[in-house]
Amino acid sequence: MIVSEQPSGMEKTVVLIGLNHKTAPVEMREKFSFSPEQVTETLNRLQAEATLSECALLSTCNRTEFYAVPRQNSESGFTTLNKFLNKNQGLSQCELDQLTYRHRGALAVNHLFSVSSGLDSLVVGENQILGQVRQAYVQAQEASSTGPVLEKLFPWAIRVGKRVRSETGIARGASSVSAAAVELAKKIFGELAGRNVLLLGAGKMGRKSLDLLTKSGVSEVNIVNRTFAKAEELAEQCGGVAVPFEMLDDALAKVDILISSTGAPHYILTKERVSKVIRQRRGKPLFLIDIAVPRDIDPACGDVENAYLYNIDDLQSVVDKNLARRHAETQSVLSIVESATSEFCRY
Q1: Which of 5-9, 67-71, 152-156, 258-262 shows the lowest mean pLDDT across its residues?
Q2: pTM of the entire structure?
Q3: DSSP 3-state helix, strand, coil percentages of the chain (rounded to 5)?
Q4: Which one of 45, 130, 134, 142 is CB 3.0 to 4.6 Å from 161, fit for a cystine?
Q5: Which of 61, 238, 301, 345 is catalytic?
Q6: Angle at 66 between CA 63 and CA 69, to 5 degrees
Q7: Active-site residue 61, yes or no?
């Protein structure tokens, strides 16, 4: 547990108790996870505590953080939050101390600014956290648990996060295999609006890639799976079309992008099969993304003219380069966060 030095000024009223992927294993983060409904209920309960005048709760898959403004002093705020967590999570104070960090004043402010900037994320620079910080603020407002301090702190944190993403490259480039697949598709085809995509199999990464491609504006999604019922289920979820496995080649002749993520122990697409499909397409390029392990597509398919094949290692290489580029931007982000913290604490 980290306890900051007590600063001067209005910011000294902010206290924070939290845990994240750095301090707690996933089984404990799950224990501390709050659904949107639970967030509202928790804020209402904390607001009823005589020792707190304001409170907000940021809960994601990788972190749970309580921000509060005590009516008297920071120690009373920590005591209230500790008692709440002891009672509701069934942990001793010793166990809680091992899992959590505590900040007050300027360090609490600095921590939230680092979070909104993506510096404290499992994947540095990821964008989702900024929306999650905004949602935590909205939920606290709806629960009427904000006041002058948090009404200043959270909008400021959101502005810092936006500034970091506009002035640095910390969020640029794909940070997952799924995002890398979409990034490569855009490089080959340009804009994806109007393109057709085929998902072969229903693996987790394939589904994620499909989701990102759909958000990029692809016009039609086809789903092929050995179990047709599963293809129908996924097609219904994404507004796509389920295609029988026996009609895979016919579907390939019509789409622009294939994402393959089956659990097959052997190649599903061979060079001969892809060559035949390309001839049917009259030279129209086909983008093949093989994110299955073992691979679904024979590497020799990449030798077929107008067939562009990428496997999971190719995509991971893109991710690694992008993440290295992001980490190189951290010093610039730290400067923005430190400057913003100092400015916040002056007012």
Answers
A1: 5-9
A2: 0.70
A3: 55, 15, 30
A4: 130
A5: 61
A6: 155
A7: yes
